[in-house]
Amino acid sequence: MDLNDLTRRLGNGTPRIAFGADYNPEQWSREVWKHDVELMREAGVNLVSVGIFSWALLEPEEGRYEFGWLDEVMDLLHANGIAVDLANASASPPPWFTVKYPDSAPVDENGVRQTHGSRQAFAACSPDYRRAAAALTTAIAERYSQHPALAMWHIHNEYGCHNQPDFGPHAERGFREWLRARYGTIDALNEAWGTAFWSQHYYDWSEIMPPRRSGTWVNPSQQLDFARFSSDSLLECFEAEADIIRAHSDKPVTTNFMGTNMGLARPVDYWRWAPRMDIVSNDHYLIAEDPRNHQDLALVADLTRGWAQTKPWLLMEHSTSAVNWQPRNIAKSPGQMLRNSFQHLARGADGILFFQWRASRAGAEKFHSGMVPHAGRDTKVWREVVELGAALEKASEVAGSRVVADAALLFDTDARWAAELDSHPSMEAQPVRELREWHDALFRAGITTDVRQSTDDLSAYPLVVAPMLYLVTDDGAANLRRYVEGGGTLVLTYFSGIVDEHDRIIMDPLNGGGYPGAFRELLGIEIEEFFPLHAAETVPLTEGSGERWSELGRTTTAEAVSRYEAGPTAGSPAVTRNAAGRGHAYYVGTTPDAEALAGLLPRVLADAGIEPPRHAAEHPDLEVVTRASEEGSWVFAINHGTEDARLPVDGVELVSGSATEGELRVPAGGVAVVRVAG
C-alpha cells in the first residue's frame, strides 16, 4: 500500500487530501478527548498520528504493557470517522529504561554520556535498546494491526534529531563491523583513508575508533565514513521495527524525515532511506526571521519530492503559527498558514499535517503552536485551521498527480557531508547555501525544479544545476557526462568534482592537470589554485561581481563567458561554457552576484530551451506550480506579495468554484488552484 491507497481510504474510494496532526491525548483528560473529536470534525480532520511519545505510559515497567487508554482513543477516533497513523512509540525510551540500562544512552564526541530528561536518550547500536524497541513494536503491532481506525504506521520519530552521532562503545563496535563489511581488508581501509598521512596506519581493526575529539583535525575520510555508518545504524533500527510491523499488517509504513532549513537532515542520508518507505513523509518548520522562508519551504518540498522519486509525499509536521525552539519564535501572520500549506500541496504533498493538534500545557514545547491553541476556538489560529480544512477538501482532486518540473538541482548527501568537514579552503564554501541560492534564482525566474542525485536518470530535464558537488563517484561523473553528451545543459559550480567517494583528491600525480579533477574534460578547463575571498570581499567580473571564491585557471576547450578583472586571478575565466556531444556544460567558479546572475541565467536557460514564464517578471512574488496526471492538470498560484496578481490561465478555481474565463486574479497573500480547461 502507498499514499494513493491512503488518500482513497480517507475519501471512501475518492482521493482526499490527508489533514490533521500529531495527537497526544495522554496529555489530557478523557473529558478533553471527547471535546477534541468534536473539534476535529468541525475542522475536517481525517488523519491523526497517535502514540509517538507514549512509551512510558504504554510500558510502565519492562514487559508489562498498559493499552487500555490507547484502546479508548483508537475506538473514539474511529467512531468519529478519523483515521489513525499509529506510532510504535520507540522514539523516546522512558526513564526506567536508562536507569536499568545506563550504557544504552548515547555518548558525545568528548566521551560524556547523556541521560534521560528530554527525548531520544538511546544509542542506536545499543542491543538493549534494539531488543526493547522490538518487543514494544511487536506488542503494539499484535494488538492494533486489525483495528478499524488504523490507516498507516509511524515508526519512531525524526531519527537522529538529538542522539546522533553516538560515539559510545556500542557505536565503536558497530563502526568496526561496518568498516569490515565495506572494505574487507585493513589494507583497503588504509588506502581509502590515506592513513600514510600523520602516521595513522592501522594494523588491526581493534585500533579503529569513532572520530572522537582529538588534538586537532581527525582524519576526514574517517569522519565521512562515520557519518555514513551513523545513518546506516539508525536505518537498521527503522528496518528492524518496520519488518515487525509488516509481518503483522498490510498498512503503509513511514517515518518522518527532517528537511527544515536543510540543516536538521544532516545525520541521515534520506536518499538511502526513502526506498524503504511505503510513504515518504517530511517535517518542515519556517525559520521565522528568514525574509525568504517561503522559498526555503519550496526548496525543502522539492527535495522531499526528490526523495520520493517525484511521487506524491506526506507533510507529517509543520506549524500553525510559532514554534518554540528558535531564538525569536515569531507567530505567523494572517493567511500565512494557508499559503504554507498550499505551497507544500503544490509541490507534491498529498497530506497536510501539523505538530500538534492541541498546544501542550506543560513541557519543553508548551509554547509551540497547535491546531487548537491555548486560547481555544475563538482565535485567529482556529478560524484559519477550519478555513484550511475546507480549502483542502475542495482541492482534493489533485491527490495522486505529480509536479511538472522544468529543471533539476543536484544534492548528494555524501557531497554535502564531505564539503562540510573541517580544514577546507574557506568556511564560506557551504553546499546548502549554494544550493539554496541557485534554487532561489530559478524560483525567481518562475522555473520549477526537482532535486535529484548525481546518479539519477536526468535525461528528462533540459537543465541540471549541480551546486558545489565537491565529492563525486565515478558513476556520478559518468552519468553527468552522458547527460551532457545526450543534449542536456549542465551547470557546475566551484568546489565541484574535487574528491572521490573516500574524500581523496581526484588528480594525476604524474601529469597534473588541476581541478576540478572529475570534470576537467567535460568542462574544458584547468584550475590550478583556489583563491577564496576575504569576508565581505567581492571580485569584479566582466559582468557583475563574484563573491566568496575565485580561482586561477585557464580554458582548454571551453569558451570564457566571464573573467575576473582584478586581483591575483585577473584574466582567469570565472564562468565558462563547453560543448560536449549534443549538449553544453557551464562552470561557475565563483558565487555570482545579482547582476552577474542576471546576465548568466538567461543564456543558460536559452541553451536548455527553457523560456521563463511572463508572470515571473510581472509578479515576482507570485509562485506558480503545475501538478498533472492522466486526468488533467492543476495550476497552483500562491501570492507572497502585498499586491494583487493576475495570471493567464483558463479553467475552474477549486477553492472558490468559479471559472477564471482566461485570467486568474490572485489577491495579495492569497492562494488559488485552477483545474485547467481541456
Topology:
Blueprint: H1 3-10, E1 18-23, H2 30-43, E2 47-50, H3 55-58, H4 68-79, E3 83-87, H5 95-100, H6 127-144, E4 150-154, H7 169-183, H8 186-193, H9 220-248, E5 253-254, E6 256-258, H10 270-273, E7 281-283, H11 293-307, E8 313-317, H12 336-346, E9 349-354, H13 380-394, E10 402-403, E11 407-410, H14 413-419, H15 431-444, E12 449-452, E13 463-466, H16 474-485, E14 489-493, H17 520-523, E15 525-530, E16 538-540, E17 545-547, E18 551-555, E19 559-563, E20 573-580, E21 583-588, E22 591-592, H18 594-608, H19 614-618, E23 622-629, E24 632-639, E25 645-647, E26 651-653, E27 664-666, E28 671-676
Helix pairs in contact: 6-9, 7-9, 12-13
CATH superfamily membership of the largest domain: Glycosidases
Largest sheet: 9 strands, parallel
**CATH class bucket of the largest domain:** Alpha Beta
Output the number of helix runs: 19
Strand order, largest beta sheet = 5-4-3-2-1-9-8-7-6
